[in-house]
TrEMBL record:
This is RNA polymerase sigma factor. Gene3D superfamilies: 1.10.1740.10, Winged helix-like DNA-binding domain superfamily/Winged helix DNA-binding domain. It holds the Pfam family Sigma70_r2. Keywords: Sigma factor, Transcription, Transcription regulation. It comes from Lederbergia graminis. Residues 20-83 form the RNA polymerase sigma-70 region domain. It comes from the Bacteria. Residues 118-170 form the RNA polymerase sigma factor 70 region 4 type domain.
């Protein structure tokens, strides 16, 4: 559905863009809010993100739309946060971010990882039984290969192979937007 909307938008259909904005409005807001931690700033940033998405659509190459807009949103929010910090330093205002949030460079990865984990939890029942436990242990419970192997009483190489095959199954059966 997103691909059809994107094509219409590229052809100048503003109504299609409004539909896309409505579909992803909350997602973009929550993404930028996760970085900025201020509702007003997040509302402004979300609007700016949609402008960036609109102007960047010609470069979009069907690589997973939700992931693509999430990256745009996170990067824009990080840029805003950096500007706020610089402005604060210029005014000699002490700005202490230590302990309040992760470093800006890792925020994007954390948001994407959290989103991937949430999507995976929703779709776990679709996985074949022989992959479900190893995927859940690795991606949801954040266990290492060694911990999973010990739990299942198998060699680490067996876990590596199971995870590889599980990833292949997911790539084959799920669209990138469903998992990326």
């Amino acid at each position: 559905m997103d691909e059809a909307l994107i094509e219409k938008i590229k052809q100048g259909n503003d109504h299609a863009f409004r539909i896309l904005v409505e579909k992803y409005r909350k997602h973009v807001f929550h993404t930028v809010y996760g970085v900025l931690r201020n509702e007003k700033d997040a509302e402004d940033a979300a609007q700016e993100v949609f402008l960036k998405i609109y102007t960047s659509l010609p470069q979009y190459e069907k690589q997973g739309f939700k992931t693509w807009i999430t990256r745009i949103a996170v990067n824009h929010a990080i840029d805003i946060k950096r500007r706020m910090v610089r402005r604060g330093e210029e005014q000699q205002v002490e700005y202490d971010e230590i302990g309040h949030s992760p470093p800006a460079e890792s925020v994007e990865l954390l948001v994407l990882k959290k989103e991937k984990k949430r999507m995976l939890q929703q779709r776990m029942q679709e996985l074949p039984d022989n992959y479900r436990e190893v995927v859940e242990d690795f991606y949801i419970r954040d266990k290492t290969y060694q911990e999973i192997a010990l739990k299942q009483q198998v060699k680490v190489k067996t876990i590596e192979v199971k995870l590889y095959r599980a990833r292949q199954w997911m790539k084959k059966h799920w669209k990138e937007d469903d998992f990326s």
